[in-house]
Specification:
Blueprint: E1 5-7, H1 12-21, E2 25-28, H2 34-39, E3 47-50, E4 59-61, E5 67-70, H3 80-85, H4 87-96, H5 99-104, H6 107-111, H7 137-140, H8 162-170, E6 173-178, E7 181-186, H9 187-190, E8 209-215, E9 222-230, E10 238-249, E11 252-261, E12 268-269, H10 271-277, H11 284-293, H12 306-320
Parallel strand pairs: 1-3, 2-3
Antiparallel strand pairs: 4-5, 5-8, 6-7, 6-8, 9-10, 10-11, 11-12
Helix pairs in contact: 4-8, 10-11, 11-12
Bound molecules: iron/sulfur cluster.
């Protein structure tokens, strides 16, 4: 492991200053991702910023009924009101990792996770995300777990976070702080598609860090569900998952948001499926139409064609289980 300098900034301004002046600096929160990457030599930061002195662990309820969750709040969060008003968040967190990992992992770190593409973590293989411009071993190799939406010639790795999928369906905003001050980024814009810059995992600008996540108030008549299909029953990353949020008046769907995980380089909003539900009753016919529409635009390869059917089924199950 390369030597690095460990900093414990005392306030946000100091953290931002260090990040802005040293592009090799990395933030560490729970360390469940960064430490493994450093151990394997995939990431070799010059400085590591331990943020534990900044607080950022609070859950703050807003006057409009929304909630702000600090970036360093652990994924093992135990908050009755959060569980009651945002069960989707808690379900996604529980599906994401073992209790031990959730004790360490944080909200900010979760949405900033690196891909679990096996080639990214093996330095002997070409990887545009790890070493820009070197190529993509997955395009010629095993693509069984790769993306079927938002695919590009530079990178077709999937985003690993369950939490980010739930936040996408809830239309959360990511709160960030940087050299130009504070700003908020809608979760849909927080994870860029690989395009020409597959090494960029987020919309953070130089010197910016995540300070929290804000969820809009839960509307009346809202129900939600998270379903995850994976290789084994114990903790594993999603082959396909679906977070669904439905707002109803009586039996009629007024609003629908469906986000997919494990199938794209970012949480993928299934907008065709959403449109198939709005204005209709939530019944077998509309659920069948939505699950069929959810795969519109998919571009699978031979190895991951099975994910098309998985998406249909995960959406159908997530919607069918709503009460
Ligand atoms: Fe790297 Fe992306 Fe290709 Fe995987 S899919 S090898 S992460 S460039």
């Amino acid at each position: 492991m390369r030597t690095f300098q460990l900093d414990r900034p005392g306030d946000l301004a100091e953290a931002v200053r260090i990040l802005a002046e040293d592009e090799g600096a990395r933030v560490i929160a729970g360390g469940t991702d960064l430490v493994t990457l450093m151990r394997d030599g995939i990431q070799q930061p010059s400085r590591v910023l331990d943020l534990r002195d900044l607080g950022l662990t609070e859950i703050e309820w807003q006057p409009d009924g929304g909630v702000r969750i600090g970036a360093l709040c652990p994924n093992a969060v135990d908050d009755r009101r959060l569980a009651a008003e945002y069960p989707l968040v808690v379900a996604a967190l529980r599906a994401g990792a073992s209790p031990q990992i959730r004790n360490m992992a944080t909200f900010g770190g979760n949405i900033l996770q690196q891909t679990r593409c096996a080639y990214y973590r093996l330095p002997e293989f070409a990887c545009n995300r790890r070493d820009p411009g070197t190529g993509c071993a997955a395009l010629r190799g095993d693509s069984a777990k790769q993306a079927i939406f938002g695919v590009s010639d530079t990178c077709n790795a999937v985003h690993p976070s369950d939490l980010a999928v739930a936040l996408s369906a809830l239309e959360a905003e990511v709160l960030v702080h940087g050299p130009a001050g504070a700003r908020r980024i809608p979760i849909r814009e927080f994870h860029p598609l690989p395009g020409d810059t597959p090494h960029r995992v987020s919309a953070l600008r130089d010197g910016e860090l995540v300070t929290g996540i804000e969820l809009p108030a839960a509307g009346r008549g809202r129900v939600s569900n998270y379903v995850k299909f994976r290789d084994r029953a114990s903790f594993a990353f999603a082959l396909a998952s679906a977070a669904v949020v439905i707002e109803r008046a009586g039996t009629v769907v007024l609003g629908a948001r469906i986000a997919l995980g494990g199938v794209a380089p970012k949480p993928w909003r299934a907008e065709h499926a959403e449109r198939a539900l709005v204005g209709n009753r939530l019944d077998e016919d509309s659920i069948a139409a939505a699950s069929a529409a959810a795969v519109r635009g998919a571009t699978p390869r031979k190895d991951n064609e099975y994910k098309v059917e998985l998406v249909r089924r995960v959406v159908r199950r997530a919607l069918s289980e709503l009460e």
